[in-house]
Amino acid sequence: MGDVAGLSMGQGFFRLLNWNLPLSASFIFVATSSDAERLHPCHLFKTGTEFVTQTLYMPLEDVRHTLTIPEVYFEDAFDRVDGSEHRAQLFRVMIDDFTPVTRRDTAKLIKSPQPNYFDFVLQDVIALPHSLRVAAESMATGDGRDMSAYKEERTDFGLLALLPRSGQERFREVFVAREESGELIAVFNCSNNPTFVNQGCNQSFRSNGVDVQMTYRRIHLDNWRELQDSVSDFLFCALTQ
């Protein structure tokens, strides 16, 4: 795991949807058997393992958060340095548990027909309403970031689909999650090209004062709320350890 400098909703993060990650970061991989008991995301915080304490710096807000994370989540020696400062940290974990494994298991996970893992980045990016405008523009309907040109309609998994009022074909699909009050709590940008073997989604949200962006195969979109809650739990433990 390492720094992912300069990643934003409108730039590098969309590249993660194709699982092509040309980033100066190392990844953390975890594995589980299909019948494994579901574990709490913080279970490794309670095993008496060694920890690494580092700072996450959010330059847009000029805020620093102290994170204390089990050392087993870091494969690279430079990430195991207490007191280091990072502008982003990228993790890859299995959906069923957060148990890390070595990098050499990567190829096996990626080749799986239904890989049961996801990536998440802790960092500082633009606010969700602006992320939604950027996502809307990525649908390439010709309506750009003018949100009055779009409408929201209820769809599966408790989400709202963002649709162009013009009826133009969408080259991507965008969804949002809202509280009953209407507050925006997550933005989703998913591939919808039928020629892609592995359709992907990214999901942006904010938790514990930190911006989070997740990437996973679209087959896991129905599990979005549990994924978001799991990362939130993990982050809370890292902030309060």
Task: Summarize the structure in words.
With 241 residues, the chain is of the alpha+beta class. The protein has one domain (12-240). It is 14% helix and 32% strand. It is built from 3 helices and 13 strands. It has an 8-stranded antiparallel β-sheet with strand order 5-7-13-12-11-10-9-8. It has a 3-stranded mixed β-sheet with strand order 3-2-4. The protein has a two-stranded antiparallel ribbon with strand order 1-6. The model is unreliable at 2-36 (pLDDT under 50).
Précis, in short:
By secondary structure, this protein is an alpha+beta fold.
Oligomer: single chain
- Basic shape: globular
Total domain modules? 1
Query: Helical content, roughly?
Result: 10-25%
Structural class: alpha+beta
Please tally the β strands and state the result: 13
| Unreliable residue runs | 2-36
> What is the CA-atom radius of gyration, in angstroms?
18 Å
Terminal Cα span: 19 Å
Tally of helical segments: 3
Major sheet, described briefly? 8 strands, antiparallel
Helix-strand string:
EEEEEEHEHEEEEEEH
How much strand content do the residues show? 25-35%
